[in-house]
Amino acid sequence: MKKILCLVLPCLLAFWGCTPKTVISKTYDFDQMNRIGVMGFTNTWPAMQGVENLFAKYLIESGFKVVERAQLESVLREHNISVSGYLSPDTTREIGRILGVDVLLIGEVSSYTPARTELTMTATRRTESRPVYTQDVMQLPDGTLVGYSRQVGTQYSHSTDVHPTEYTINARVGIIAKLVDVGTAEIIWIGSDEASSSSALDAADAIARALIKSFSKELTKLQEQKQL
Question: What predicted TM-score, i.e. pTM, was given to this entire model?
Fold first, then answer.
Protein backbone atom coordinates (compact mmCIF):
# COMPACT_ATOMS: atom_id res chain seq x y z
CA MET A 1 0.00 0.00 0.00
CA LYS A 2 2.78 2.45 0.80
CA LYS A 3 4.34 1.98 -2.63
CA ILE A 4 1.07 2.76 -4.39
CA LEU A 5 0.61 5.95 -2.39
CA CYS A 6 4.08 7.14 -3.33
CA LEU A 7 3.25 6.82 -7.01
CA VAL A 8 -0.13 8.50 -6.84
CA LEU A 9 0.67 11.39 -4.50
CA PRO A 10 2.66 13.51 -7.03
CA CYS A 11 -0.35 13.51 -9.33
CA LEU A 12 -2.60 14.91 -6.63
CA LEU A 13 -0.44 17.94 -5.84
CA ALA A 14 -0.61 21.10 -7.94
CA PHE A 15 3.09 21.56 -7.43
CA TRP A 16 5.75 20.64 -4.96
CA GLY A 17 9.01 22.37 -4.11
CA CYS A 18 11.54 22.72 -1.37
CA THR A 19 12.40 25.86 0.54
CA PRO A 20 14.46 28.05 -1.83
CA LYS A 21 18.17 28.44 -1.07
CA THR A 22 19.13 32.13 -1.21
CA VAL A 23 22.02 34.36 -0.16
CA ILE A 24 21.93 38.17 -0.06
CA SER A 25 24.86 40.57 0.22
CA LYS A 26 25.07 42.12 3.68
CA THR A 27 27.32 44.96 2.47
CA TYR A 28 25.58 46.13 -0.70
CA ASP A 29 23.60 49.37 -0.54
CA PHE A 30 20.21 48.29 -1.88
CA ASP A 31 18.94 51.87 -1.57
CA GLN A 32 20.66 52.54 -4.92
CA MET A 33 18.70 49.76 -6.62
CA ASN A 34 15.89 51.57 -8.42
CA ARG A 35 15.47 49.73 -11.73
CA ILE A 36 16.05 46.06 -12.49
CA GLY A 37 16.75 44.76 -15.98
CA VAL A 38 15.58 41.19 -16.59
CA MET A 39 17.86 39.23 -18.93
CA GLY A 40 16.92 36.15 -20.92
CA PHE A 41 17.71 33.04 -18.89
CA THR A 42 20.22 30.49 -20.12
CA ASN A 43 18.13 27.50 -21.15
CA THR A 44 18.55 24.51 -23.44
CA TRP A 45 14.96 23.21 -23.24
CA PRO A 46 12.35 24.68 -25.64
CA ALA A 47 9.57 23.89 -23.16
CA MET A 48 11.14 26.28 -20.67
CA GLN A 49 11.45 29.33 -22.93
CA GLY A 50 10.31 32.57 -21.32
CA VAL A 51 10.80 31.65 -17.66
CA GLU A 52 12.47 35.03 -17.06
CA ASN A 53 9.07 36.66 -17.67
CA LEU A 54 7.75 34.87 -14.60
CA PHE A 55 10.47 36.52 -12.50
CA ALA A 56 9.62 39.90 -14.02
CA LYS A 57 5.98 39.37 -13.05
CA TYR A 58 6.78 38.71 -9.40
CA LEU A 59 9.35 41.52 -9.21
CA ILE A 60 6.70 43.97 -10.41
CA GLU A 61 4.16 42.44 -8.03
CA SER A 62 6.64 43.03 -5.19
CA GLY A 63 6.94 46.72 -6.07
CA PHE A 64 10.19 46.79 -8.06
CA LYS A 65 10.67 48.81 -11.24
CA VAL A 66 11.48 46.37 -14.04
CA VAL A 67 12.80 46.67 -17.58
CA GLU A 68 11.62 43.45 -19.17
CA ARG A 69 13.69 41.18 -21.39
CA ALA A 70 12.22 42.04 -24.81
CA GLN A 71 12.74 45.79 -24.37
CA LEU A 72 16.19 45.28 -22.87
CA GLU A 73 17.41 42.98 -25.63
CA SER A 74 15.96 45.19 -28.37
CA VAL A 75 17.93 48.20 -27.15
CA LEU A 76 21.10 46.17 -26.66
CA ARG A 77 20.92 44.77 -30.19
CA GLU A 78 20.74 48.32 -31.49
CA HIS A 79 24.02 48.99 -29.69
CA ASN A 80 25.59 45.68 -30.79
CA ILE A 81 25.94 44.44 -27.22
CA SER A 82 25.80 40.69 -26.72
CA VAL A 83 23.39 39.56 -24.01
CA SER A 84 24.17 35.85 -24.03
CA GLY A 85 26.63 33.92 -21.93
CA TYR A 86 29.09 35.58 -19.56
CA LEU A 87 28.61 39.30 -18.92
CA SER A 88 31.83 41.18 -18.25
CA PRO A 89 31.93 44.19 -15.90
CA ASP A 90 32.36 46.46 -18.95
CA THR A 91 29.23 44.97 -20.53
CA THR A 92 27.13 45.34 -17.38
CA ARG A 93 28.23 48.96 -17.03
CA GLU A 94 27.31 49.63 -20.65
CA ILE A 95 23.90 48.04 -20.14
CA GLY A 96 23.34 50.16 -17.06
CA ARG A 97 24.32 53.32 -18.92
CA ILE A 98 22.11 52.68 -21.94
CA LEU A 99 18.99 51.46 -20.14
CA GLY A 100 19.32 53.29 -16.87
CA VAL A 101 19.11 50.09 -14.83
CA ASP A 102 21.00 49.57 -11.60
CA VAL A 103 20.80 45.79 -11.34
CA LEU A 104 20.42 42.89 -13.77
CA LEU A 105 18.49 39.72 -13.05
CA ILE A 106 20.37 36.83 -14.70
CA GLY A 107 19.41 33.18 -14.47
CA GLU A 108 19.48 29.71 -15.89
CA VAL A 109 17.25 26.68 -16.04
CA SER A 110 19.61 24.27 -14.31
CA SER A 111 17.51 21.12 -14.69
CA TYR A 112 14.34 19.97 -16.38
CA THR A 113 12.57 16.62 -16.45
CA PRO A 114 9.33 16.64 -18.46
CA ALA A 115 6.12 15.12 -17.15
CA ARG A 116 5.52 11.61 -18.34
CA THR A 117 2.94 8.87 -18.11
CA GLU A 118 4.03 5.37 -17.16
CA LEU A 119 2.26 2.05 -17.13
CA THR A 120 2.64 -0.54 -14.42
CA MET A 121 1.05 -3.95 -14.09
CA THR A 122 -0.92 -4.52 -10.89
CA ALA A 123 -1.56 -8.07 -9.70
CA THR A 124 -4.63 -8.92 -7.63
CA ARG A 125 -4.73 -12.30 -5.91
CA ARG A 126 -8.16 -13.91 -5.53
CA THR A 127 -9.13 -16.92 -3.44
CA GLU A 128 -12.36 -18.86 -3.98
CA SER A 129 -13.78 -21.64 -1.87
CA ARG A 130 -16.40 -24.32 -2.46
CA PRO A 131 -17.67 -27.15 -0.27
CA VAL A 132 -16.63 -30.73 -0.95
CA TYR A 133 -19.36 -33.41 -0.65
CA THR A 134 -19.27 -37.15 -0.58
CA GLN A 135 -22.03 -39.62 -1.34
CA ASP A 136 -23.03 -41.95 1.44
CA VAL A 137 -25.74 -44.49 2.17
CA MET A 138 -27.74 -45.01 5.31
CA GLN A 139 -30.20 -47.70 6.23
CA LEU A 140 -33.61 -46.73 7.54
CA PRO A 141 -35.25 -48.65 10.40
CA ASP A 142 -37.34 -50.61 7.93
CA GLY A 143 -34.20 -51.73 6.19
CA THR A 144 -34.47 -49.39 3.24
CA LEU A 145 -31.16 -48.02 1.96
CA VAL A 146 -31.13 -44.29 1.21
CA GLY A 147 -28.36 -42.38 -0.52
CA TYR A 148 -27.43 -38.87 0.60
CA SER A 149 -24.63 -36.28 0.27
CA ARG A 150 -22.67 -34.88 3.16
CA GLN A 151 -19.99 -32.14 3.30
CA VAL A 152 -16.59 -33.47 4.16
CA GLY A 153 -14.50 -30.32 3.70
CA THR A 154 -13.80 -27.15 1.69
CA GLN A 155 -11.77 -26.84 -1.47
CA TYR A 156 -9.83 -23.61 -2.09
CA SER A 157 -8.64 -22.31 -5.46
CA HIS A 158 -6.31 -19.38 -6.05
CA SER A 159 -6.00 -17.15 -9.10
CA THR A 160 -4.17 -13.94 -9.99
CA ASP A 161 -5.65 -11.15 -12.10
CA VAL A 162 -3.12 -8.83 -13.77
CA HIS A 163 -4.28 -5.47 -15.13
CA PRO A 164 -2.47 -2.27 -16.24
CA THR A 165 -2.42 0.85 -14.05
CA GLU A 166 -1.47 4.22 -15.58
CA TYR A 167 0.07 6.98 -13.48
CA THR A 168 1.69 10.35 -14.15
CA ILE A 169 5.11 11.51 -12.95
CA ASN A 170 5.15 15.30 -12.67
CA ALA A 171 7.58 17.56 -14.50
CA ARG A 172 10.49 18.74 -12.35
CA VAL A 173 12.33 22.02 -12.85
CA GLY A 174 15.41 23.59 -11.27
CA ILE A 175 16.28 27.30 -11.64
CA ILE A 176 19.18 29.48 -10.46
CA ALA A 177 18.74 33.26 -10.45
CA LYS A 178 21.02 36.10 -9.39
CA LEU A 179 21.01 39.88 -9.19
CA VAL A 180 24.15 41.60 -10.47
CA ASP A 181 25.12 45.23 -9.89
CA VAL A 182 25.72 46.82 -13.31
CA GLY A 183 28.49 49.08 -12.05
CA THR A 184 30.69 46.48 -10.39
CA ALA A 185 29.35 43.16 -11.78
CA GLU A 186 29.06 42.12 -8.13
CA ILE A 187 26.52 39.42 -7.36
CA ILE A 188 24.33 40.99 -4.69
CA TRP A 189 21.80 38.17 -4.37
CA ILE A 190 21.58 34.58 -5.62
CA GLY A 191 18.96 31.92 -5.18
CA SER A 192 18.09 28.45 -6.41
CA ASP A 193 15.07 26.24 -6.11
CA GLU A 194 13.40 23.14 -7.55
CA ALA A 195 9.72 22.34 -7.95
CA SER A 196 7.52 19.77 -9.62
CA SER A 197 4.07 20.03 -11.16
CA SER A 198 1.97 18.49 -13.89
CA SER A 199 3.04 21.51 -16.00
CA ALA A 200 6.70 22.56 -16.30
CA LEU A 201 5.76 26.25 -16.51
CA ASP A 202 3.61 25.90 -13.39
CA ALA A 203 6.66 24.52 -11.59
CA ALA A 204 8.79 27.40 -12.91
CA ASP A 205 6.13 29.88 -11.80
CA ALA A 206 6.24 28.41 -8.29
CA ILE A 207 10.03 28.79 -8.24
CA ALA A 208 9.90 32.40 -9.45
CA ARG A 209 7.30 33.26 -6.83
CA ALA A 210 9.27 31.57 -4.03
CA LEU A 211 12.63 33.13 -4.97
CA ILE A 212 11.33 36.68 -5.38
CA LYS A 213 9.33 36.35 -2.15
CA SER A 214 12.49 35.19 -0.38
CA PHE A 215 14.50 38.09 -1.84
CA SER A 216 11.86 40.61 -0.76
CA LYS A 217 11.87 39.24 2.79
CA GLU A 218 15.66 39.32 2.99
CA LEU A 219 15.72 42.87 1.64
CA THR A 220 13.11 44.02 4.16
CA LYS A 221 15.07 42.40 6.96
CA LEU A 222 18.26 44.22 5.90
CA GLN A 223 16.46 47.55 5.73
CA GLU A 224 14.99 47.04 9.20
CA GLN A 225 18.42 46.22 10.60
CA LYS A 226 19.82 49.46 9.15
CA GLN A 227 17.16 51.45 10.94
CA LEU A 228 18.09 50.03 14.34
Answer: 0.71
